[in-house]
Every structure is written in C-alpha cells, then in structure tokens.
Amino acid sequence: MKILIAAAGSRGDVAPYTGLGARLAAAGHEVALATGEVFAPLVREAGLEFRPLPADPRGAGPAGTKRELMATAAAFMRRLATGMKGAAADGTELMLLSATTAPLGWQLAEATGVPAMGAYLVPTEPTGAFPPVVGGTRSLGRFGNRALGRLSLRITDRLFADAVRDLRADLGLPQIPPGAVRRRQEAANRPILYGFSEVLVPRPSDWREGLTVTGNWWPYHDDDFPLPSDVEDFLAAGPPPVLVGFGSMPADDAERLSELAVAALRRAGVRGILQSGRAGLAASGADVLTVGDLPHAVLFPRLAAVVHHAGAGTAAATLRAGVPSVPVPVMADQPFWAARLTALGAAPRPVPFAALTAERLGDAIKCVVTGPVTGPSYADAARAAARLMAGEDGAGRVVEAVEGLAWG
Predict the structure, then answer these.
(1) What would the mean pLDDT of 53-79 be, rounded to a whole number?
(2) Is the dihedral of CA 338, 342, 346, 347 positive or negative?
(3) Taking every annotated instance into account, which residue ranges of this chain make up the domain Erythromycin biosynthesis protein CIII-like C-terminal (predicted)?
(4) What pLDDT score was predicted for residue 172?
(5) Is domain 2-216+392-403 annotated with CATH 3.30.470.10?
(6) Which residue has the higher pLDDT, 407 or 18?
C-alpha cells in the first residue's frame, strides 16, 4: 500500500512519524512522509520518501496580540493547504494525518476518495477526564472539561476556516464549514490513532468508538548508533549526569539561560550535559558538557535525570528510559505533560519556564536526584512506568490498524 504520512510543526511534532513510517515500511508498505524541508534528513535517514510541505512554523515567534497570533496561524494553515494537495498526489492509497494536517487531509480524502486516518500525538477529543491539553491543567469537572474541549475544537475550526474554504474551492468541493466536516468524521466513527502511552494518559471512558490509544511512536534511530567519544568519555568520568535541554523551544538570551543551567547543576551538586537545541545552550568545564541532537533512546538511560520542556515526546522518552524528570514547561501542551509526570510520581512539581531561576531549578534537580523525604523516589516511579511501557508496541498497533482497514 502507498501510504502518505503528513505532519507539521516542530521536531517533536514530526520525529515520531519517522519511526512509525519505518515500521510501516518494514511491513512491506511504500511510505512517504510529507513535512517541512528542515526535517528532510530525518525522513531520509529512516528510509522514507520525503515530500516537502510548508510545514515548519518556526518563523512566527510567540509575541503579538491574540488577533495577530490567530492571523499568523491562519496564514500558515493556508500555505499548508497548498502543500498538502501536492504531497497527496502520485497514487497515494492511504493518508495518515497528524492533528495539524488532518483538517486539510479530510478535504483531500473527500475529493479523491483516498482513505484517511488520524494519527495524533496528543489527545484532542473532548472528555470529562481532563481539560483540553492546551487549556491549562486545572480541571473544571466533567461537564466543564467537556465544554472546554468542545470550545477548543471550535477555535481550531476557526483557525482552519480560510484554508479549508480555499482548498475545497480548489478541489471543486461544495463549501461547508470545517466544523461540519469534523462532525461528519465523528458521526461516522472514523478512526483516530493516538501515539501516546496509557501509562501517562489512560484512554478516557467517555471517548467515542474508533479512538485508539496505541502507545508511543518513537523517532527512528539506528540501533547501532554509537554515542560520540566525548560523550562516552564524560559519562565514564563520574556518576550519571543530569541533562538540561529545551528541545525546539527558543531562548531570548542563550548565554543567560546557559549560565542559569550550569549554576543550577552546581547548586544541586551534580554533573551535567547541556543539549544545545534551539535555545542554543552551551557551556564547558570538567563537570559540564555540551552536546547536539542525540537519540533519546541511546542517551537517556545513561542519565540520573532530565530537565526538559515537557514536550509529549521528551516526557515519554524519560519514562521509557526509566529516569526521572524536572519539567520546565514553556507553552502549548507542555504544562499538561508536565502535570502528568508529576501525577505519576516521576517528577516534582513543574518549574514554569517563565519563573525559572538557578535556585529553583537547582533545588528541583537536587530533590529529584536525592529523592523525596518520604515515599517512593522519583526514579522508582520512572522505572515502574518503564516496565509498563515496555509491553506497549504503538507502531505495531498502527500497522495492524492499517492492514485491517474496513471502511469505505
């Protein structure tokens, strides 16, 4: 089967689909991954066909009024719609759509008759179990959570309204609101696969039929990938270090943030690794090393703890490795995943990025490494989660779902 996976966003929004695509390819399918040009090397390294999308929104910063941010997002969606139409050509027989590309992919499926399946990294369906992942972490009760979840979907519909209108006109489809398309998908119980673990987010009991939590889809990496020699030397030179990294999150002052991170590590009395990432962290010394992108699956098991921005993929990777976290959420769904790690006992209370100081971060690192005064340690909770996650095969369940398609 010729399968197109379409994903847009930051590295964390794209990388899991490289592992998923590689697993589908290993099962005998022809797999292309359409995403931003910046991620082409990741796609090709996984052995997948790369198809370009204008799908990297990093040029838009977080500043601006609510109206300006909405306008920027809507313009991005319109560019994405144009790219989606081209990417889905050339004999595609199935589309797997991320949460960002799905509102556009459903239009293509209607126009072409090519089946489409949602493949999302975060829970999007309204539920009484928790508020929407970008709506804060405070529960409003079952009724309030569901109401806020429905409002969140309507806001998403508004963001895509112009892009959907233009795409439907280009495809020769009658004009209907994007919310109507989504509701039609829901009424038909069209399947959506969720690539996260029930260890972190159990499937809500009030979700409709057709919504499946498969377990995580892990980014592709070569099983024989060796850590660089300087990393191996640093790991061998003392006790397991603590990694500090913020992934795709930018920083206004990389030098200040780097100094803060080093001061926090030394306050906690631990060795550290700074992962440069988009924030540009950098420092050197006998007790600290700076690294670039390294596979979480290879590096994380060698660490004492990880300080991170609590993106969905990084949060799950710490648990998979059985190491505790110090979550420092920045934006979007990160407070949600940070709170999940805390509730699981694998992390202390999050330290919001906006309130980050060397003192607060250092004390949190020391607490994680030494353990709480009473009760199980954060490391114990992380290791327990790792044992449960080891029994999951998220990509394998997607392969089963793809090969068992039975809708028209």
Answers:
(1) 65
(2) positive
(3) 279-390
(4) 94
(5) no
(6) 18
